[in-house]
Amino acid sequence: MLSPYELVVLLSCLVSLILFGYIAYEFLRVYRRLRARSLLYLSASFFLLALSQASSVLSILVESARLSLTFYTLTSSLAAASFFLIVVSVSEEEKAVVVAPIAMSAPDLLACALAAAASVTCEGRQLRAYLVALSMVHMLRFLSALLLHSDAGALLLALAEVARALATLPFAIFHVGRVVGRE
Amino acid sequence: MSRARKRSRLQIVMETLEALDEHGELHATELSLIVKLSYDRLRSILEDLNERCLVEVERAEDERRSLMVKLTSEGRRLLEELRRLRKILEDYGLA
C-alpha cells in the first residue's frame, strides 16, 4: 500500500511523463516533415525527460530497495542527459564548448567510483579484475573528456573510448560464459 | 557591444513560411528582401522546401529568370503546427 507521500510523487511523475511524452511526439512529428535537426534534439530531450519520470515511477513501484535505488539513480542520469542535449543543441557554440566537457566527464567519474566499489564487494578474482579495468577506463574517459579542448583532446577521447569498448567486451563475454559456457 | 544573434535554419524557414502565408504568392527576390536573406541562400532553402512539398516554386510567366513562390496546403498545415510550438521554440531561442 502506497503512502500519501508516495501517491503524490507517483501521480505528479505520471502526469509529467504523459506531458513530456506528448511534447516529444509533437516535435518529432514536425521534425519528420521539416528535418530541422534542432527539432529532433528538442524531441529527444523531452523524450529523455519522459523516461526520467518513468524511471522515477518505477523507483516508487518496485518493492526491492536495491532496484528502487537503481531507478532513483537512473532518474537523475536520464534528466542529466536531457539537459545536456538542451545545452549543447540550443546554446551558442562558445557556451556549448565550455559546458560539454564538464557534462560529459561527470558521469564517468561516478561510473569509475561505483565500478571500484563493486570490485571491492564482489567475490570472484576474474570479475574483480574486469571491474577494476572498467573503473580505470572510466577514469581515463573522465580525464580525456576534461582535456577535450587540448591539442590532443580528440585523440585522447577516441583512445579512451576504444579502451572502454575493449574492456567492456570481455566483461560481457565473461557473464555470458558463466551462463552458457562449461565450468 | 551587442552582437546580432545568428538565425538558425529553423528560424529562417519559419520566417519564409510566415511571409508566404501573409503575402500569398511572391517573387523569390521579394521574398529574399522580406526574410533578409541572400538570394542564393534562400534559393537553396526553397529547393529543400519544394522537395518536401511545403512550397511550390515556378518560373514567372512574364520574366523567365524570376521564380514565383507560394505556400502549399501541406506547408500551411506545417506552419500551423510550428505556430503551436512557437512559444517553446522561442523560449529555447529557436524561433
Helix-strand blueprint:
The complex is a heterodimer of chains A (about 180) and B (about 100).
Chain A: H1 4-34, H2 37-61, H3 65-90, H4 93-121, H5 125-146, H6 153-180
Chain B: H1 9-23, E1 26-27, H2 28-34, H3 39-51, E2 55-59, E3 67-71, H4 73-91
Antiparallel strand pairs in B: 1-3, 2-3
Helix pairs in contact in B: 1-4
What can you see in these coordinates?
The complex is a heterodimer of chains A (183) and B (95). Chain A folds into two domains: 1-90, no CATH class; 91-183, no CATH class. Chain A is mostly helical. Chain A has six helices and no strands. In chain A, helix 1 runs antiparallel to helix 2, helix 2 runs antiparallel to helix 3 (65-90) and helix 5 packs antiparallel against helix 6 (153-180). Helices cover 88% and strands 0% of the residues of chain A. With 95 residues, chain B is of the alpha+beta class. Chain B has a single domain, classed as Orthogonal Bundle (Arc Repressor Mutant, subunit A), CATH 1.10.10.10. Chain B has helices spanning 9-23, 28-34, 39-51, 73-91, and strands at 26-27, 55-59, 67-71. Chain B is globular, with a radius of gyration of 14 Å. At the A-B interface, helix 1 and helix 2 of A face helix 1 and helix 4 of B.
TL;DR?
The complex is a heterodimer of chains A (183) and B (95). Chain A has helices at 4-34, 37-61, 65-90, 93-121, 125-146, 153-180.
